[in-house]
Amino acid sequence: MRAHAERLDGLGTTIFAEMSALAVATGSVNLGQGFPDRDGPDSLLEDAIAAIRAGANQYPPARGVPALRQAIADHQKRFYDLAYDPDTQVLVTTGATEAVAAALLAFVEPGDEVIALEPYYDSYAAGIAFAGGRRVPVTLRAPSYRLDLDELRAAVTPRTKVLLINSPHNPTGTVLTDLELQGICDIAIEHDLVVITDEVYEHLVYDGLQHRPLASYDGMADRTVSISSAGKTFAVTGWKIGWVTGSPEVVTAVTTAKQFLTFTSGAPFQPAVANALALGNDYFDALRADLQSRRDLLATGLADLDFEVHRPAGTYFITTDIRPLGHTDGITFCRMLPEKTGVVAIPHQVFYDNPTPGRPLVRWAFCKQPEVLQEALNRLQKL
Question: What is the pLDDT of residue 16?
Answer without folding.
Answer: 79
